[in-house]
Amino acid sequence: EAVAAAETDPLTLSAWILTQQHKSPGARGRLTVLLNAIGVGCKFVSSAVRRAGLAGMMGMAGSSNVQGEDQKKLDLVANEVFKNSLRRSGQCCILITEEEDEPIFIEEPFRGDYIVVFDPLDGSSNIDCGVSVGTIFGIYKAKNPGSGKYSLDDVLRPGTEMVAAGYCMYGSMSYMMITTGRGVAGFTLDPTLGEFVITHPNVQIPTKGNIYSINEGNAANWDPATKKYVEECKAGTYNKGKPYSLRYVGSMVADVHRTLLYGGIFCYPADKKSPKGKLRVLYEVFPMAFLVEQAGGKSTTGTSRSLEIVPDSIHGRAPIYLGSKEEVELIEKLKKEC
Ligand code: AHM
Ligand code: MG
Question: What is the pLDDT of residue 168?
Fold first, then answer.
């Protein structure tokens, strides 16, 4: 009996990254090295998340981050892991992490031409109860590669200029979804091999969905369009009278992962209390918007394409509605009408 190809010839993340490199004539393998460094960071964090309860890494670390939120020990571990792995890759000039107020400029001999923006452990309020968390990352290439001159101008750029983005979700398994601008590929960490193996070669988000995902506790503060959309989801207006289902994990990575695979919409709108929403443009909104668009879906602030935002600060926020094309278009239409 023939052995399934996947069993004897698994396409690992590293091998896939190389195939992407081969599609870019002139590529010198530097992005390949960088993406591999991210893969290693994700494996480390995956293992740390799985051992967290046993290793005593749960609970507060006793300090707060830029946004004044309590940091959990695992956030700090993940942040250090990614900083070290990215620095050592020799491919980065600037790192922006959710956990640190200031940009990190990499010095020689480790300096390279890429900028990585990342949230090392998103959804950390979910850690102590074992719910999925994740790492989100986006990559820019410096405006003047090789010049040795790098500044915040290299970072405060629209998402359309990102060269790659992705996330790793530490859930029932660890899943990595990644794009280099040629569609989205998904990998699952095979714990026996210690490798991410391709399981979703070409992720396509369903054009229409029947799941909405939003923190409905904030409903009283929503704008009229968001209120109307959610009312219509419940009334089944867009689904032949059958109400949509509500799913909300409270970990962006998990909520977006489900949206990519099952379709539907994920929203974190602006509201009266948070006039710019909650999620951060550089390392939450852009990477997810890039992935969703590459999977055939859409992402908007409500009035414009998420990827076209020009960030004004490294930790700036923006409202986001992303998912199935038709659902996001309904929101855009309601925003014009309401
Ligand atoms: P964090 O970066 O502090 O973990 O916050 C980001 C998380 C996202 O993962 C999630 O989508 C959102 O916060 C949930 O916020 P809320 O609890 O307000 O619904
Ligand atoms: Mg976070």
Answer: 98
Closest ligand 1 atom to Cα of 125: 4
d(CA 227, CA 197): 41
- CA 291, CA 322: separation in Å to the nearest integer? 10
What pLDDT is stored for residue 299 in this prediction?
Answer: 98
Task: Say how many Å lie between the CA of residue 125 and the centre of ligand 2.
Answer: 9
Beta strands in the chain (DSSP E): 60-64, 70-72, 92-97, 104-105, 111-122, 133-141, 164-170, 174-179, 184-190, 195-200, 211-213, 245-246, 265-268, 298-300, 320-323
In sequence order, which residues have a C-beta less than 8 Å from that of residue 59 and are 6 or more positions away? 72, 73, 128
Specify the pTM. Answer: 0.94
> Encoding tokens for residue 309?
């935002």
Phi, psi dihedrals of residue 169, rounded to the nearest 5° = -105, 125
Residues within 5 Å of ion ligand 2, judged at the Cβ atom: 98, 119, 122
- pLDDT at residue 1 in the model: 46
Q: For residue 247, how many other CB atoms are within 10 A of its CB?
A: 16
Nearest atom in ligand 1 to 124's CA: 4
**Which residue from 125, 246, 256 has its CB within 8 A of the most atoms of ligand 1, so it is best to mutate?**
125
Helices and strands in the chain: count of H runs, count of E runs: 8, 15
The closest ligand to the CA of 259 turns out to be: 1
* Pocket perturbation via mutation, ligand 1, pick of 215, 221, 282 by most ligand atoms within 8 A of CB: 215
Question: What is the mean pLDDT of the segment spanning 294-304?
Answer: 98
Place of tokens 């109400």: 243
| Cα 79 from Cα 69, distance rounded (Å) | 15
Summarised one tens digit per residue, pLDDT across range 312-328 is: 999 999 999 999 999 99
Question: In this predicted model, what pLDDT tens digit does every residue of 21-53 receive, in sequence order?
Answer: 888 877 788 999 999 999 999 999 999 998 877
